[in-house]
Structures are given as structure tokens and as C-alpha cells.
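Entry 12.
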Amino acid sequence: MTLEPIDPILGPGEKLHIPVKHDESIMRPNELWRRVYIKGVKNGKMPLRKKGLGKAIHVSGWIVEETGTLSLSDEQREADLKLLPEKRLPTHDTREIIYPGKNADGWWNCERLIKQVSYQS
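Predicted 3D structure (C-alpha cells):
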């Protein structure tokens, strides 16, 4: 048994629709700490743990069920790299990574989303 996709039989005027899902995640280096493993407690005191969750990382991307993360194929990447530098795409995948915050990259908003999906540099 294989899990190969089966192409649908489309009638006249019908088009294949492929759902593309938006995926966002925010991660922090110190989140979800519930346990700490200690090698030799000194003076009977626990080591100090960081108080904050750490600097956040926001990842936004697009996913296609059959292929995973939406990105150019190897052939498309090779073709893009053969173009003159000013004609090349700014990126070869749809992932956008920012460090959100007032004193960092700002916040994820509608303008960033539009830029992500339209390949505006």
C-alpha cells in the first residue's frame, strides 16, 4: 500500500483547488520550564533561573498539505539563480522570521503579511 496522491478526474470547466494554509508560531527560549536537572546542589541552594521568557521569535509561513512548506522547487531555484541579480526573487520560500517587540523588528501586522505573500522587497 502506498500513499501516492490520486489526481481527481475533472469535468469541463472544473479546476483543481489546492488549499494553502497559513501557519504562525511564536517561540521563546525559556518558556515552559517546569523542571530543572541539577548536577550537585551547592550550599543546599537551587541555581537561579531566568525570570523572563526570553526574546520572542515569530515565524510565519505557508503550508501545502501534499508538499509541506511552500517554496520553490529545485528546478525553479536553479532557474532563478541564473537570472541577473536585480531580476532574482528576494527569497525562495515563504517563511518570514521576525523578532517582535517595540525595540526590535516591530509587530506582525497586515502590512507584513501582504509583503510576505506578494514578494515585495
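Annotation: Strands lie at 20-27, 57-64, 68-69, 96-98. The longest strand covers residues 20-27.
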